[in-house]
Specification:
This is Ribosomal protein S18 acetylase RimI-like enzyme. By secondary structure, the protein is α+β, with helices and mostly antiparallel strands. It contains four helices and nine strands; from the N terminus they run βαβαβββαβαβββ. The longest helix is centred in the middle third of the chain and has 15 residues, at 115-129. The two termini are 31 Å apart. The structure holds coenzyme A.
Length: 189
């Protein structure tokens, strides 16, 4: 867990677009954050239940996602005085003031110290500065603690559900047959 006190972050905390050289580190961070420990690393609080196995992403998939989504931004976050990436997030305009936010990830070794809240707020600033008015997120239905975390940050359940893509293992290998995506939205002010 981070030893940085909540609300006392280094001043240089802006998000920057990932370069191609950053992709391997983003992939490692994302897979660790979403799937938990690799044996050498800490396990994050939000991933203890194993409802999916397999990697969340790969370098090939992420590069492909970027090439087919030219308006999307993969943003990374480094803290002042540190070389490694502590967090990353995908942001993509959907038209009419709506933006999709996905793949929000904080290094599991640094979670539960306020970094996730700060990263989410920086991502919201990024969208706001580009004229966005709503942020849309999809979360797998069984992740109640994560849904609660977003709700405490102003996101609400739109009542819409999207089917889980069973049979397409690029999202991981499902361990349950009752998965779907819950759509959450926040109105930016
Ligand atoms: C979601 C994520 C980005 C949050 O990052 P973080 O640095 O841990 O977040 P913060 O430190 O700001 O907040 C920690 C929160 O977890 C809560 N928490 C900690 N341990 C918990 C537990 N065992 N059960 C439930 N909640 C817990 C804390 O109470 C705190 O919430 P609060 O401030 O509203 O009370 C991070 O956990 C992550 O990368 N998860 C894996 C990837 C993922 O699921 N991303 C979202 C996909 S939509």
């Amino acid at each position: 867990m981070s030893d940085i006190p909540k609300d006392d972050f280094p001043t240089s905390v802006e998000l920057v677009p990932a370069t191609d050289d950053d992709i391997p580190e983003v992939v490692r961070l994302t897979n660790l954050a979403y799937r938990g420990s690799d044996g050498d690393s800490a396990e994050g609080w939000s991933t203890r239940e194993k409802y999916l196995t397999g990697d969340r992403t790969t370098e090939k998939l992420l590069r492909n996602d970027l090439s087919v989504s030219p308006h999307a931004s993969l943003l990374i976050w480094r803290l002042e005085g540190e070389s490694g990436i502590v967090g990353s997030v995908w942001l993509e305009p959907q038209g009419d003031g709506n933006w999709y936010l996905g793949s929000l990830a904080v290094d599991p070794a640094r979670q539960n110290g306020g970094l996730g809240k700060k990263l989410l707020s920086l991502a919201e600033d990024w969208v706001r500065e580009r004229g966005g008015r709503h942020i849309n997120i999809t979360v797998i239905n069984v992740r109640e603690t994560l849904i609660g975390w977003y709700e405490r940050r102003g996101y609400y359940d739109m009542g819409e559900r999207e089917p889980f893509p069973y049979g397409d293992d690029r999202f991981g290998v499902p361990q349950r047959d009752d998965l779907c995506f819950v759509k959450l939205q926040k109105k930016l002010v």
